[in-house]
Amino acid sequence: MGKKKKTPPDIHWLYEASVQNVDTDLDFGKRVYTKHWKRKPLTVREDFCGTAKLAARWAQRSKLHEAWGIDFHQPTLDWGVKYNVSELTDKQKKRLHLICGDVLEAKTPKVDLAFALNFSFCVFKQRDVLRRYFQRMKESLKDEGLFVMDIYGGTESVTAKSDDVREIPGFTTPEGMKIPDFEYVWEQAAYNPINHDTTCHIHFKVPGFGKIEKAFTYEWRLWTLAELQEILLEAGFSKAEVYLHDFDDEGESDEIFRLRKTYENVQGWVAYVVGIK
């Protein structure tokens, strides 16, 4: 008899370890918010929140913080409640509100700072729909409000490729499963230059567990920085800013995002785009 195949790790753990750095996102949002409004933000909204890691972390950071998270996929929210929300104290949990719903329809109290991260808004492929989403986002902000999203680009973002591999440090899950250092593989399976439609997959290679093919698949429109700024202004934001990183000696992002007007057209970059209400 062949060896029994080990049950692979939950893909949500692998995703959070590979893709998300919620403290970096929150620190960035707080820094830019304070620059514009000369005070610290207290309330946060996380759209397309998935496992609600960012919203939960915000509630955890201060007894003055309150957060809302919106996602249309209840099983993913349930996973976030089981793991990310369970780490909070009872008081922190009361300051975290999760909504299963459509970000184009769901309503929350007005917040200081809102996020749509991990390129999630790229599911909106029509300009009119994206503008409507930005208008909804503007309505959800207080008068002194800020909206932060991220987007990727560069010369290699508009080609089909599957060689973007990163080594991710291992960790142990709350259930005690030891996950060794593993590989995160980003595949751009297709790109249409006429309408910027792109199909991307995330694969994982975990030693002892094998390859998890197409753990996540995305059907997006890859919006440009110019388009996002224009549509934010069309939606009524007073200003739209772009923040981009430099590179370290090994060609990796230095993770320091600065306000930019010009930028070299390198192979790949990730930017924060900020709408100021």
TrEMBL record:
SUPFAM superfamilies in the record: S-adenosyl-L-methionine-dependent methyltransferases
UniProt xrefs under InterPro entries: SAM-dependent_MTases_sf (IPR029063)
PANTHER family xref list: EXPRESSED PROTEIN
Protein name: Methyltransferase type 11 domain-containing protein
Lineage: Bacteria, Pseudomonadati, Kiritimatiellota, Kiritimatiellia, Kiritimatiellales
